Amino acid sequence: MMGGSFGVSQPATAAALRRRSVIAVLHLTLLLPTVGVSGQSVGSPLDCHKTCVCASNIVSCSKMNLTNVPLALPKYTAVLDLSFNSITRLRAEWTPDHLSRLHSLLLSNNGLTFLSSEAFIYVTKLRYLDLSSNGLRILDEFIFEPLEHLEVLLLYNNHISQIDRTAFSGLDRLQRLYLSQNSITRFPLELVKERSRLETLKLLDVSSNRIKSLPLYELQVLPAWIKNGLYFHNNSLSCSCDLYDMVARWYLKELSSATDFKSSHTCVIPGQRKEKMAILDLDKAYLNCSEVKTLDEEAYLEQFLVLDCDTRQRDMVKRWALPGNIPLSPANKTAVMRSDGNLQIGPLRLEDSGVYTCYATSDSLNETLYVTVVVFNATTAGGLENLKTAYTTLVACLVSIVMVLIYLYLTPCRCATCPGQGLEKSDARESLHSSTVSLSQAHEETPQEKAEGGGFPYRHMAFRDPKDQMEQNGRLNPIGEEDEEWQGDSSERRRSDAESVSSVCSDTPMVV
Fold first, then answer.
1. Which pTM value belongs to this model?
2. Transmembrane segments in this chain: where (predicted)?
3. Which residue of 71, 81, 190, 202 could cross-link 60, Cys pair, CB 3.0 to 4.6 Å?
């Protein structure tokens, strides 16, 4: 019984085991695609023998057709090269561990189109980041803010057309920013202007973009060490004499941004054909812009003048030499070198004219700048006095001309017969002015006067004193007693006018 029972149970047990193994294999077969998909989304563990090359603290996985960043990167990794792969999205979880020693990350030529806002929170010690030759289109706000130690950022050869003004905020140590060969239409002035610029930035490349205009005035006033690293060639800038003036001055100052790419500094001529021409040739053709020359410093006696030693590098060691190549000494009280390296001279004297020389040195560059000073033999106060005298003379001449015109054209008419009026005067006052002899006030004739007149109407005549006549012929009629006699009744004046004699040549007999 027992042996038969044992013989029956053994085949049954073997069959059961076979069924279980088949079920297990089916389960593993179903799970394999899931594992494969999960591995593709988060990346596979780092393999320093098949997919990457590990040399000390350098991990190079270039040209391995990776779609994600490998997992389990060593914490001592300093350089990570993932270039020339197919990593299109850089997510926040691409490295779950904090890589405190990583200082260089290379992600160029990956077709990268997406950057998570938290992509760099675990690699804050980065100093070199290469995102060039990808498909990035937009740089969002504060995207690089965690990278406070970053010094070099390569973003050239993307499709960037929009840059938020805060995209580079927090990059307090950034020295070089490459944005060339994109679709940028606005010059990022906030990166270089006085109050918002990145203090350590000494190279900004926005060449080969779609920028049509530049903030010329703001760029002109920048220090030379910033202008030396501003590259904007191969853009669609509109031709103008202001643009020529800026580029020509940079070229004369031998700034690298102008001299290194002289033939690439072109502009577009307005018009339908949109022709390009060299900016430095605008003084010879098309606009006929004025030629740019270096200008001397001009000043007057007793003024103070500051000479700028504007070098192509920042924080260079500077020293000055006075005219005649005399070294500047602390005993000189009229020429003092300031803390910023500039030279202040004054109060100016005639002997201060001449060529001043600034010698600037650094570990990589030596530079010599010459400044010519011309002091005029006059003071600004004297110039103002001369200007006041000339102004006063001019005003006096104008006032004199106005008075003459008033006298000639606005003086009331005093003539006996005014233009446009008849010869006869109806007013007794005007008749008096044109007469040299006038009758006395008219009165009624008595019979006795008629008899004495011998039949002629009696007229009582009064002759003026010769003195009075001279006064009338040469001057305006004076106001006297005879004028008062005309101020009688108006009816009597009319009758007197009808009977008066207005001229000494009258045919009427005169009886005394």
1. 0.64
2. 391-410
3. 81
